Amino acid sequence: MGHLIPLIELAHRLLLHRRLFITFIIHTAAGSPVKPQNDILNAMPENISSIFLPPVNLNDLPQDAALETRISLTVTRSLPALRQTLTELTSDPIRKRPSALVVDVFGPFSFEIAKEFNIPPYLFCMVSAMTLVAIFHIPILDQMYTCEYEKLPEPVRLPGCLPVQGADMPEPLQDKKNETYVRMVELAKMFSMPKGILVNSFIDLEPSTFKALEDSEWCKPKIYSVGPLTRSGSENHTGNGFECLKWLDKHPVGSVLFVSFGSGGTLSHNQLNKLAFGYVHGKSNASYFNAQSHLDPLGFLPDGFVWRVEDRGLVVSTWAPQVEILGHGSTGGFLTHCGWNSIPESVVCGVPMIAWPLFAEQRMNSDGWFGCR
Questions:
Q1: Strand 196-199's sheet: what is its strand order?
Q2: What superkingdom does the record give (predicted)?
Q3: In sequence order, what are the beta bridge partners of 355?
Q4: How far is CA 353 from CA 66, 222, 259, 304, 345, in A?
């Protein structure tokens, strides 16, 4: 969802400028839920359609296989199905031939297939321009450093970016012996292949970084700053999503701390207990906690937590309307995992952030935006 939502916003923006027909082609793995994606895609305008490729089997992977490995293998194992889908789309007598193939950051494996069909490939970068610079430099840094990043005595210096502590480089790069690291180096080399790269950021937000991309010899594709691509917050919400907004209406301006670690963020049991303890004994006027679990959404919280904060806090156990929460006058702060969807949404809404990075490139986002670890 963290990749799909900004892509959908990009599709909406494109429709404002030209009459287009847009098809989402979505890779899936066996056993992965597709209902959340289906729900959001089914609500799209009639000239936006979607195709779910047949699910691929990942049962041969070890249980502890990294998320990035699972995603990249899902993409590569779906390439035959993608080729078949593009064959059907290009031979459709009613619809025009596709004029571009836009992929997310794990999609460059499909560039060779786009070339077969003479379809110009583009890459949509749903992370920051700073992260994009880091990706371009992965092969370069691989040659420069033989040790692990966490053991570097000095910060990593990237063109147009603040220095990044080695330990805060993206998580998939933190173990050079792991297959995920090898895949990320391979993937990074493909970032020079598309005709252009669309970045979900804007020049005033990262001026020196965009200038470094524009002036460099290592960034060959044309760079387009198309952000911030954030939801308008005008969606119709029901159930807990609607109730939380009514709850916010009852609280003073700037009095609520919104806490969300995204759709994939998890804390250790010890971290969660300490966080809950801080809420129960803190001095905030109100607290907002976003939790998600397949079975009992509130079961992992400490015993008695919900009733202890019920007079000044609210626990939401399902998907929360984050943009509307951040845009609400009662929200005065955001404790965030520093995912790149959340940072632009908070910037657009003018809500101060407290950084608690968890995984992926979030520690680097924290370094780049908050100057802290």
A1: 101-103, 121-125, 196-199, 222-225
A2: Eukaryota
A3: 336
A4: 28, 32, 10, 28, 11
Q: Which domain holds residue 258?
A: 240-370
**What is the separation, in whole angstroms, between the first and last Cα of the chain?**
26
Q: Can you tell me the distance from the alpha carbon of 350 to that of 218, in angstroms, rounded to the nearest whole number?
A: 34
Do residues 132 and 340 make contact, with C-beta atoms less than 8 angstroms apart?
no
CATH number of domain containing 137: 3.40.50.2000
Residues labelled as active-site residues: 3, 104
Contact 318, 240 (CB under 8 A): yes
Q: Residue 287 has which token pair?
A: 């607290």
Mark whether 82 and 208 lie in a shared domain: yes
Do residue 221 and residue 264 come from a single domain?
no
Whole-angstrom distance, CA of residue 338 vs CA of residue 352: 12
Predicted pLDDT at 14: 92
Residue 207 pLDDT > 70, yes or no? yes
Is residue 318 pLDDT above 90, yes or no? no
Q: Look at residue 283 in the predicted model and tell me its pLDDT.
A: 45
> Which amino acid would we find at residue 252?
P
Specify the range with the lowest mean pLDDT, choosing from 21-30, 54-63, 223-232, 276-285.
Answer: 276-285
329-335-340 Cα angle (round to 5): 95
231 within domain boundaries: no
Provide the whole-model pTM.
0.82
Residue 128's SS3 state is coil
